[in-house]
Amino acid sequence: MSDYKKPLPAVQPWSEEFWRAAKQHKLLIQECKECKSTIFYPRKFCPECWSSDLGWTEASGRAKIYSYTVMMDQVEPKFMKDLPYVLAFVDLEEGIRMMTRIVGCKPEEVNFDMDVEVTFEDITEEFSLPFFRPIEAKKN
Ligand code: ZN
Fold first, then answer.
1. What distance in angstroms lies between residue 45's CA and the mean position of ligand 1's atoms?
2. Is the backbone of residue 80 left (phi > 0), alpha (psi -120 to 50) or beta?
3. Ligand 1 centroid – CA 64 distance (Å)
4. For 33-50, how does the pLDDT look when each residue is reduced to its tens digit (9 = 90+)?
């Protein structure tokens, strides 16, 4: 794992909690205490009402694929050996749209509206990234 050469997340003070939870394989989303908006990715201020009174809540981890692209080429050299992979926007049950990668199935098996769930990949000692996999895949 220590030979991980891809960019690591840039951790900001207001996203530390998110990455700490990800390391424990929990997906956190921010919630505005003023207007109750759910917020992703982590921010300092609520994008709806600009409140800084934000808290955290654990997401169910269940989502549907909103759109996706199969990356076949045209990626940076450091991502080459991952090809092909699926880059997707998924809609969490909590109403948040997240950009992520779909793992645990072949790119041709990915579909719009597919039910997926979060799964974490430990990329370094410090970081785990939230990816999504088809919910059916777990039963195999
Ligand atoms: Zn708000």
1. 8
2. alpha
3. 25
4. 999 999 998 999 999 999
